[in-house]
Write a structure and sequence with these properties.
It is a single chain. Helix 8 links the parallel strand 16 and strand 17. It contains nine helices and 17 strands. Helix content is 28%, strand content 23%. It has two domains: 191 residues, Rossmann fold (3-Layer(aba) Sandwich); 124 residues, TPP-binding domain (Rossmann fold). The termini are far apart. The C terminus is likely disordered.
Amino acid sequence: MRVNIDDYRGVWVFMEQKEGQLLDVGLELLAAGQDLARKLEVDVCGVLLGDGVKPLTNQIFEAGADKVYVIDDPILKFYRTETYMKAVGDLVRKYKPEIFLYGATSNGKDLASAVATDVLCGLTADTTLMDVNVEKRLFEASRPAFGGNIMATILCKKHRPQMATVRPKVIKRLPPEPGRTGEVVEEVITLKEEDLKTKVLEIVKSSKKAVNLEEADIIVAAGKGVKDAKGFAMVAELAEAMNATLGASRDVVEAGLCGHERQVGQTGATVTPKVYVAVGISGAIQHLVGMQNAELIVAINSDREAPIFQAAHYGIEADAFTVVPMLTEAFRKELSREPAGEETEETEGVTSRG
């Protein structure tokens, strides 16, 4: 069924929360939402669902929202597709946003696809670039396609809202504005617990230490050039010596050298560490989209023509099996030193760029 797209106005962001804490991705997307809303001359609005979550609206306003739609109900305490789809679908049908952004988290992707089928609109997954054609009021959602060889810009011309999921860390959040306020719109959900098909019986938290690439300050990542388990272990030793988080390219994961939770790139995590060390990684676009916004990128590769050098701030053209053990030893010595006293001898260091 075709809708009257002229009835739809405004940019919405789904503000995902867990146990009463907002996820960073929603706050990041408010920055993108502000840019789109400014061009379209509309409000950027947050959508907040949960139980006891209304106090979070202050944080959402400080992050850039002009308005927040809130449904605060015990039935929304835990994420369930059935309840959240109903709540968001009702809000969309009543208030008619023209653009709706979700974080590409497990729950965000599930909810976005469910809402798209409920309200009959399009959805672009894993968007990495966003813009808007102001004259036609078309949302331009771009993402890598055909194995990452091209960037495809996807348009939704006939249906509203225009929706997209966006990976965490793709957008840099704006500094909060303390005291910033806006309009709170409170709504209700018409579902009852006894009418639901799913019940939350128990929440089981794993005792296993999770790998959190998205929050890591330093990442050392292994690529196809490490060849085998021995080479991967060599890179893991460097990561340990640097107090870094160990990452990997898709080739390494598919070779079974580590789990998917360590994968960086288009089909893995998007990261923005302070330092990213790429060992034996060629630099295919599928990997670059996941780490190109790191503050400092160091590439170690024996292939002078490897694309990773174009993205790197510093490059070491050398055999990783020679360089990495040397770096590991150097970092171990440096980080194990006692703090220097007043009578230490000063030495002058030399930094070279490969």
